[in-house]
Amino acid sequence: MNHLSHEEQEQILDFYFRCGEDRDINGGRDLIASNPEAARLYANLEETLTDLDHIKYEPCPDNLVDLTIARLKLAASVKKKPDDSNAGSQLHQLLEKEQQALPETPAKPYYQPQDSDPTLKFNPHHRMGELLAAAASIMVIFSLLIPVGGAMRNAGRKITCQNNLSQVGAAFSTFANDHADQIATARVQAGNPWWKIGDQSTEARSNTRHPWQLIKEGYVTGREFICKGNSGANPIDCDEGQMNSLYDFPCRTNVSYSFMLFCDENADALQKRRKIIASDLNPHFRKISPCQNSCQPQDEFEKVLIDDQLRQIMSANHRGKGQNVLYCDGSVNWLTVRIVAHNSTKDDDIFTIQGISEYKGCEMPTNENDIFLAP
Q: Exposed/middle/buried for 29, CB within 10 Å: 0-12, 13-18, 19+?
């Protein structure tokens, strides 16, 4: 039997959790297909972890390690001698002393039975040392598991995000066949703002009126518009009567994706199979995006000047690592870049309008191939 190396085991984990570089994920897939030992490990992962799917996810506090260390230091300082101001102040010093003593001194019981040697008495310093050693072991385990747990959570958020966009894409396709006239009325006219999410006037003043129709007509629920990576987003919460009276999402926090700016210039874009029509949030307009908790439309757009540095950043939904994008054919891909090619036309940045660096909130795409996902 060929034993798997550490690198091969990591490739299998990357493939199972769909995290890491694409080459590692693909390498794990090929390894499983060609190596019986790898296939057995993957099967064991499936069998062991599938039972955990029903467990409710409880997020791990980001400051858990800091809190644990602080409590250990506090416990050590309480146990120190009155005449020794340095005892217990440094956790690693205590551990080093304990480790040096262990090979030379055999372990002794913390208490002595009455019929044994009365010189053997309870030693609180030994107990404190062992407690600290156990705590150090726990901290080592935490230091190993927390990065893995973080990667697993990020991978889970990315997969959930992809599922959301897939459902939105399927709803778009069905809705376009059933209500082409309503999509036309949701177009933003030239000169109108496209960023006023929450504005309920009859005239389209936001870029979310066409996806809002999917919820209003019952094709999807509000939860499909929430990316787990956006901590400031919340699903829409209103009854059917309230929903029927709305023309748009009631609040910016109800949608954590950016959609193609739908206007007369690109009216037929939904018919192009490889056209990108949605993605994780555009990183340039976070101040007027669901990351802002206010549910009142802003009266003024704060001008945004996009420089070379801003042109390099990815969506904040997934910590700037990349973004999921939805195509017209319903497929969803994970992109670690924001530049896409359009056959013979020049490359296009999906988060900007071609040739425009300063945004006032009413810009329009320059042509049908100019993708602009907003806000």
A: middle
Other CB atoms within a 10 A radius of the CB of residue 218 amount to 10
In a domain, 74, yes or no: no
Using CA atoms, how far apart are residues 52 and 335, in angstroms rounded to an integer?
29
Q: Which residues lie below 8 Å from residue 12, measured CB to CB, with a gap of 6+? A: 4, 28, 31, 32, 38, 41, 42, 45
Q: The whole model's pTM is what? A: 0.59
Closest CA to 348 of 330, 332, 335, 334: 335
Please check whether residues 161 and 45 belong to one and the same domain: no
Question: How many domains does the chain fold into?
Answer: 2
Cis ω for the linkage preceding 375 (within 30 of 0): yes
pLDDT tens digits, one per residue of 199-231? 888 888 888 888 998 998 889 999 999 998 888
Torsion of CA 243, 232, 287, 190, to 10 degrees: -30
Which residues fall within 8 angstroms of residue 38, CB to CB, at 6 or more apart? 4, 8, 12, 28, 31, 32
Q: Which domain holds residue 18?
A: 6-49
Query: Which of 82, 8, 87, 13 is CA-nearest to residue 45?
Result: 13
Residues 180 and 316 in one domain: yes
Give domain status of residue 124, yes or no. no
- The answer to whether position 55 is within a domain reads no
pLDDT digits (tens, 9 = 90+) for 306-345: 988 889 999 999 988 999 999 988 899 999 999 987 655 5
Q: Are 114 and 98 in contact (CB under 8 A)?
A: no
When the pLDDT of each residue in the chain is averaged and rounded to a whole number, the result is: 76
Tell me, yes or no, whether 39 and 174 share the same domain: no
- Provide the 10 A C-beta neighbour count for residue 193: 21
Q: Are residues 315 and 200 in the same domain?
A: yes
Beta bridge partners of 37: none
Q: Rounded CA gap, 234 and 254, in Å? A: 5
Residue 41 sits in the same domain as residue 161: no
Is residue 25 in a domain?
yes
Same domain (yes/no): 157, 44: no
| pLDDT per position as a tens digit, 287-308 | 765 444 456 556 678 889 998 8
